[in-house]
């Protein structure tokens, strides 16, 4: 092994430091948030996709396939339904020429009885007699009025 002189070692160290200083890569970012931009774009894209899914679900719910059966000129109409078990029902269906009493389970539908059709004037009056459920706003206002009347009558009695 040969011994290196002190001057050659100093020269090697000096050359090495110049080479490393020149060859060191410099990372420069315009804003300093290079990864945050791509993360923001990804989150924005995800939110757009989720919003699109909810919009499609609302559209299907509003104009879904079962909406075609709800109308005044239906050939079949459910007149009544009564649960007789957890998954069993007795249903009365109005057709053009008869009323059908059906037993409906999760596995089958069974014809139980046939009744004569209702006269047209009875069908029209039953359509007008059907009660619609109040909206949430109407029900809340009604219940608040009842409660206020009760509390004021209790104060008057005390």
From TrEMBL:
Pfam families: FliO. The keyword Manganese does not apply. Coiled coil: none annotated. Its main location: membrane. It comes from the Bacteria. Keywords: Bacterial flagellum, Cell membrane, Cell projection, Cilium, Flagellum, Membrane, Transmembrane, Transmembrane helix. The chain crosses the membrane at residues 42-60. It is found in: Cell membrane; Bacterial flagellum basal body. InterPro entries: Flagellar_biosynth_FliO, FliO/MopB. PANTHER family: FLAGELLAR PROTEIN FLIO (PTHR38766:SF1). NCBIfam families: FliO_TIGR. Belongs to the FliO/MopB family. This is Flagellar protein.
